[in-house]
Design brief:
The complex is a heterodimer.
Chain A lengths: L3 E4 L2 E5 L4 E7 L4 E9 L6 E7 L4 E4 L2 E6 L4 E6 L8 E9 L4 E4 L3 E6 L1
Parallel strand pairs in A: 2-11
Antiparallel strand pairs in A: 1-3, 3-8, 4-5, 4-9, 6-7, 7-8, 9-10, 9-11
Chain B lengths: L3 E4 L2 E4 L5 E7 L6 E7 L6 E7 L5 E2 L8 E7 L2 E6 L8 E8 L7 E2 L3 E5 L1
Parallel strand pairs in B: 2-11
Antiparallel strand pairs in B: 1-3, 3-8, 4-5, 4-9, 5-6, 7-8, 9-10, 9-11
Classes of the chains: A mainly beta, B mainly beta.
Chain lengths: 112, 115
Protein backbone atom coordinates (compact mmCIF):
# COMPACT_ATOMS: atom_id res chain seq x y z
CA UNK A 1 0.00 0.00 0.00
CA UNK A 2 1.32 3.43 -0.95
CA UNK A 3 1.81 5.51 2.16
CA UNK A 4 3.61 8.60 3.37
CA UNK A 5 4.32 8.94 7.07
CA UNK A 6 5.71 12.01 8.77
CA UNK A 7 7.25 12.47 12.16
CA UNK A 8 7.03 14.01 14.59
CA UNK A 9 3.36 14.93 14.51
CA UNK A 10 4.17 18.23 16.19
CA UNK A 11 7.27 19.98 17.42
CA UNK A 12 8.00 22.99 19.60
CA UNK A 13 11.39 24.69 19.38
CA UNK A 14 12.90 27.96 20.49
CA UNK A 15 13.62 30.69 18.02
CA UNK A 16 17.09 30.38 16.56
CA UNK A 17 17.32 26.62 17.03
CA UNK A 18 17.56 24.04 14.26
CA UNK A 19 15.15 21.18 13.71
CA UNK A 20 14.70 18.20 11.41
CA UNK A 21 11.42 16.77 10.18
CA UNK A 22 11.14 13.24 8.84
CA UNK A 23 9.19 11.66 6.00
CA UNK A 24 9.10 7.95 5.21
CA UNK A 25 7.28 6.60 2.20
CA UNK A 26 6.37 3.28 0.68
CA UNK A 27 5.34 4.65 -2.70
CA UNK A 28 6.40 2.81 -5.82
CA UNK A 29 7.37 3.53 -8.51
CA UNK A 30 8.69 6.79 -7.17
CA UNK A 31 8.62 9.96 -9.24
CA UNK A 32 9.43 12.87 -6.95
CA UNK A 33 9.09 14.17 -3.42
CA UNK A 34 8.12 17.66 -2.40
CA UNK A 35 8.08 19.48 0.88
CA UNK A 36 5.41 22.13 1.35
CA UNK A 37 4.92 24.74 4.04
CA UNK A 38 1.33 25.50 4.98
CA UNK A 39 0.59 28.48 7.17
CA UNK A 40 -2.62 28.30 9.17
CA UNK A 41 -5.59 29.13 6.98
CA UNK A 42 -3.54 29.24 3.80
CA UNK A 43 -2.78 26.93 0.93
CA UNK A 44 0.51 24.97 0.84
CA UNK A 45 3.58 26.58 -0.69
CA UNK A 46 6.33 24.49 -2.24
CA UNK A 47 9.73 24.54 -0.52
CA UNK A 48 11.72 21.89 -2.37
CA UNK A 49 11.30 19.16 -4.96
CA UNK A 50 13.59 16.18 -5.41
CA UNK A 51 13.69 13.44 -7.96
CA UNK A 52 15.14 9.98 -7.60
CA UNK A 53 18.71 11.02 -8.38
CA UNK A 54 18.87 14.00 -6.04
CA UNK A 55 20.14 13.65 -2.49
CA UNK A 56 20.01 17.20 -1.22
CA UNK A 57 18.17 20.36 -2.14
CA UNK A 58 18.33 23.69 -0.35
CA UNK A 59 16.05 26.68 -0.31
CA UNK A 60 17.40 29.33 2.01
CA UNK A 61 17.29 28.01 5.54
CA UNK A 62 15.46 24.88 4.40
CA UNK A 63 17.46 21.83 3.33
CA UNK A 64 15.78 18.65 2.18
CA UNK A 65 17.49 15.30 1.84
CA UNK A 66 16.37 12.17 0.08
CA UNK A 67 17.52 8.58 0.41
CA UNK A 68 15.73 6.72 -2.35
CA UNK A 69 17.11 3.39 -1.18
CA UNK A 70 15.61 3.59 2.29
CA UNK A 71 12.71 5.72 1.06
CA UNK A 72 13.32 8.43 3.59
CA UNK A 73 13.43 12.18 3.37
CA UNK A 74 14.14 14.89 5.87
CA UNK A 75 13.62 18.63 6.01
CA UNK A 76 16.15 20.53 8.07
CA UNK A 77 15.36 24.06 9.18
CA UNK A 78 18.31 26.16 10.26
CA UNK A 79 18.16 29.09 12.67
CA UNK A 80 14.42 28.93 13.03
CA UNK A 81 12.30 32.06 13.01
CA UNK A 82 8.88 32.75 14.44
CA UNK A 83 7.52 32.83 10.89
CA UNK A 84 8.57 29.21 10.44
CA UNK A 85 5.63 28.21 12.62
CA UNK A 86 3.45 26.24 10.21
CA UNK A 87 2.61 22.75 9.05
CA UNK A 88 5.18 21.06 6.85
CA UNK A 89 3.79 18.51 4.45
CA UNK A 90 5.69 15.82 2.59
CA UNK A 91 4.13 14.93 -0.75
CA UNK A 92 5.22 12.00 -2.89
CA UNK A 93 4.29 11.52 -6.51
CA UNK A 94 4.47 8.12 -8.12
CA UNK A 95 4.57 7.53 -11.80
CA UNK A 96 1.66 5.15 -12.04
CA UNK A 97 -1.09 7.53 -13.04
CA UNK A 98 0.80 10.52 -11.73
CA UNK A 99 -0.89 10.11 -8.37
CA UNK A 100 0.26 12.06 -5.36
CA UNK A 101 0.08 11.11 -1.72
CA UNK A 102 0.16 13.64 1.08
CA UNK A 103 1.69 13.03 4.46
CA UNK A 104 -0.29 14.11 7.51
CA UNK A 105 2.19 16.90 8.13
CA UNK A 106 4.31 18.07 11.03
CA UNK A 107 3.07 21.08 12.94
CA UNK A 108 6.02 23.22 13.95
CA UNK A 109 5.75 25.86 16.64
CA UNK A 110 8.64 28.28 17.04
CA UNK A 111 8.61 30.14 20.35
CA UNK A 112 10.42 33.33 21.23
CA UNK B 1 5.98 31.74 -10.32
CA UNK B 2 2.65 30.12 -11.07
CA UNK B 3 -0.23 31.68 -9.19
CA UNK B 4 -3.55 30.10 -8.33
CA UNK B 5 -6.36 32.13 -6.83
CA UNK B 6 -9.55 31.10 -5.11
CA UNK B 7 -12.73 33.02 -4.56
CA UNK B 8 -14.19 33.60 -2.11
CA UNK B 9 -11.56 33.28 0.60
CA UNK B 10 -14.27 32.58 3.14
CA UNK B 11 -18.03 32.09 3.07
CA UNK B 12 -20.73 31.58 5.65
CA UNK B 13 -24.03 30.13 4.54
CA UNK B 14 -27.19 28.64 5.92
CA UNK B 15 -27.81 24.93 5.91
CA UNK B 16 -29.50 23.79 2.71
CA UNK B 17 -28.05 26.44 0.45
CA UNK B 18 -25.49 25.89 -2.28
CA UNK B 19 -22.08 27.50 -2.41
CA UNK B 20 -19.81 27.92 -5.41
CA UNK B 21 -16.03 28.22 -5.06
CA UNK B 22 -13.87 29.35 -7.96
CA UNK B 23 -10.30 28.32 -8.66
CA UNK B 24 -8.28 30.18 -11.26
CA UNK B 25 -4.77 29.74 -12.61
CA UNK B 26 -3.68 33.31 -13.22
CA UNK B 27 -0.55 33.00 -15.32
CA UNK B 28 -0.65 29.54 -16.82
CA UNK B 29 -3.04 27.13 -18.44
CA UNK B 30 -3.90 24.27 -16.14
CA UNK B 31 -4.56 20.97 -17.82
CA UNK B 32 -5.58 19.48 -14.51
CA UNK B 33 -7.06 20.94 -11.36
CA UNK B 34 -7.51 19.27 -8.04
CA UNK B 35 -9.91 19.92 -5.19
CA UNK B 36 -8.99 19.14 -1.61
CA UNK B 37 -10.73 19.38 1.70
CA UNK B 38 -8.91 19.91 4.95
CA UNK B 39 -10.39 19.57 8.41
CA UNK B 40 -8.71 21.22 11.41
CA UNK B 41 -5.33 19.77 12.27
CA UNK B 42 -5.57 17.22 9.48
CA UNK B 43 -3.83 16.89 6.16
CA UNK B 44 -5.33 17.65 2.79
CA UNK B 45 -7.74 15.06 1.48
CA UNK B 46 -8.15 14.83 -2.27
CA UNK B 47 -11.78 15.09 -3.30
CA UNK B 48 -11.58 15.06 -7.07
CA UNK B 49 -9.40 15.58 -10.09
CA UNK B 50 -10.68 17.47 -13.10
CA UNK B 51 -9.33 17.89 -16.58
CA UNK B 52 -10.52 20.70 -18.79
CA UNK B 53 -13.50 19.69 -20.87
CA UNK B 54 -14.11 16.34 -19.25
CA UNK B 55 -15.92 15.01 -16.21
CA UNK B 56 -14.17 15.10 -12.88
CA UNK B 57 -12.85 11.94 -11.29
CA UNK B 58 -14.00 11.69 -7.69
CA UNK B 59 -12.19 9.92 -4.88
CA UNK B 60 -13.90 7.10 -3.10
CA UNK B 61 -16.43 8.34 -0.59
CA UNK B 62 -16.90 11.75 -2.19
CA UNK B 63 -20.45 12.32 -3.46
CA UNK B 64 -20.29 13.65 -7.00
CA UNK B 65 -23.87 14.89 -6.85
CA UNK B 66 -23.12 16.90 -3.74
CA UNK B 67 -19.79 18.32 -4.83
CA UNK B 68 -20.26 19.47 -8.40
CA UNK B 69 -17.09 20.27 -10.29
CA UNK B 70 -16.95 22.17 -13.55
CA UNK B 71 -13.66 22.66 -15.35
CA UNK B 72 -14.91 24.96 -18.08
CA UNK B 73 -11.60 26.31 -19.29
CA UNK B 74 -7.87 25.86 -18.87
CA UNK B 75 -7.82 28.59 -16.25
CA UNK B 76 -11.02 28.05 -14.30
CA UNK B 77 -12.54 25.28 -12.25
CA UNK B 78 -15.49 25.60 -9.91
CA UNK B 79 -16.62 23.50 -6.98
CA UNK B 80 -20.26 23.79 -5.95
CA UNK B 81 -21.28 22.39 -2.61
CA UNK B 82 -24.96 21.65 -3.03
CA UNK B 83 -27.42 21.66 -0.14
CA UNK B 84 -24.62 22.36 2.29
CA UNK B 85 -24.84 21.06 5.85
CA UNK B 86 -22.79 21.91 8.94
CA UNK B 87 -20.63 18.80 8.44
CA UNK B 88 -19.51 20.28 5.11
CA UNK B 89 -17.83 23.11 6.99
CA UNK B 90 -14.18 22.83 6.11
CA UNK B 91 -11.22 24.42 4.37
CA UNK B 92 -11.39 23.79 0.62
CA UNK B 93 -8.20 24.09 -1.38
CA UNK B 94 -7.67 23.79 -5.09
CA UNK B 95 -4.47 23.19 -6.98
CA UNK B 96 -3.53 23.31 -10.62
CA UNK B 97 -0.80 21.88 -12.79
CA UNK B 98 0.05 22.42 -16.42
CA UNK B 99 1.78 19.14 -17.19
CA UNK B 100 1.20 15.55 -16.24
CA UNK B 101 3.36 14.68 -13.28
CA UNK B 102 4.31 18.30 -12.83
CA UNK B 103 4.14 20.39 -9.70
CA UNK B 104 0.79 21.31 -8.27
CA UNK B 105 0.36 24.97 -7.43
CA UNK B 106 -2.08 25.53 -4.61
CA UNK B 107 -4.63 28.22 -4.14
CA UNK B 108 -4.94 30.07 -0.82
CA UNK B 109 -8.01 28.08 0.19
CA UNK B 110 -11.64 28.87 0.97
CA UNK B 111 -13.04 28.58 4.47
CA UNK B 112 -16.64 27.35 4.35
CA UNK B 113 -18.82 27.60 7.42
CA UNK B 114 -22.32 26.20 7.23
CA UNK B 115 -24.66 27.32 9.99
Amino acid sequence: KNQVEQSPQSLIILEGKNCTLQCNYTVSPFSNLRWYKQDTGRGPVSLTIMTFSENTKSNGRYTATLDADTKQSSLHITASQLSDSASYICVVTYTGGFKTIFGAGTRLFVKA
Amino acid sequence: GAVVSQHPSWVICKSGTSVKIECRSLDFQATTMFWYRQFPKQSLMLMATSNEGSKATYEQGVEKDKFLINHASLTLSTLTVTSAHPEDSSFYICSARFASGGEQFFGPGTRLTVL
